[in-house]
Amino acid sequence: MKRLFCLDGVRGLLAVYVLLGHMAPFAVLPGWAESVVSHGGAAVDLFFILSGLVIAASLQRFHCQARPFLIARVARIFPVFLPVFAFAVVLQAWPCGFNHMPWIGPTGAARSICSGAWPSTWAAEIAAHLTMTHGLFPNGVLPDVWVSFLGSAWSLATEWQFYLLAVLVAADDRRLVRVLLALALAGVAWRLAPDAWQFSRAFLPNKAHLFALGVASEALVQQQPGALRRYGVVLGLTLAVCATQSPIGKVLPPLAWTLCLLIETHERFPGFHQANRLLRSPTLAYLGAISYCVYLVNEPIHKLVGLMLSPLAGGNAVLFTLAWIPLAILLPIGVSGWLHRYLELPALRWGHSVAYTWAARGMAR
């Protein structure tokens, strides 16, 4: 599959949007400003759709061989995740500084982002994160495991469930789409189960329709015969599943994704050329390159900055906000740039080298 450079820009925009959504509840901002960046869940949904496209293409590059594909995924996910997760575990028991932030009420959104309590089931929750199984526990077993320690890591559990499913049906993208849509419909039906047996957003059936749309996009990008019709069917089913969820705004990510594909594949249309140029800009391309790091590090860095900055502000919301906004944006991006250069890129090179070696051996047999 040809490389879609505009998708790097999409990644960059989504990662920064999630960062802003985690930053805004701690500051004193106009209601409209906080509302604009309060849809981080929709941004993650777009990440899932994009992942469906990327993983479908990755499996084809490795000739649908499980071992090289999973080696490449391990090299992509764990080298950054492990140190960031360790940092978050160290910070877990530390307070968030809310005692110095009187402008944040007891029901403020910031309190759902930052937690200063050590979980009673900490050993099981750490083990679940390290094995990427923290999306497989129903509410009645480990109710908050999917967001404990490192809240943003919940999506990694969903991703790994998708990877394993993709490996099982890798030889047929259409079959993978059908299985994902069947899982999504099962997830809708499962909502009738008792609350104790409900699963979090990190459970694959609750997001499977989004991955299905991404997988269906590959044939469209490759301009295969009948791809547009198949994509339209999958888009319709995806929107139908989204419409059963609350809020109704869940239908926006599939529509936004479809617009991204149109911008990439129909650049000659009025307005699309300018949008494509923006998404391919060096700034967004760089933010896209470090987007995974930005996505993971922003919450623990925000907690540390808030803890250190709030006493210095002395309860002054304006003073805190003026210092908080630049620090909460620039510091995670700076740390992410360092992680990308010295940890993520070397790990990716090593992982791809090993993966392609195994793929070549598999083809030679």
UniProtKB/TrEMBL annotation:
Keywords: Membrane, Transmembrane, Transmembrane helix. Residues 6-336 form the Acyltransferase domain. The chain crosses the membrane at residues 12-33, 39-59, 71-94, 145-169, 176-193, 317-339. GO terms for molecular function: acyltransferase activity, transferring groups other than amino-acyl groups. One of its GO terms (cellular component) is membrane. It holds the Pfam family Acyl_transf_3. It comes from the Bacteria. GO terms for biological process: lipopolysaccharide biosynthetic process. InterPro entries: Acyl_transf_3_dom, Acyltransferase_3. This is Acyltransferase 3 domain-containing protein. It comes from Rhodopila globiformis.
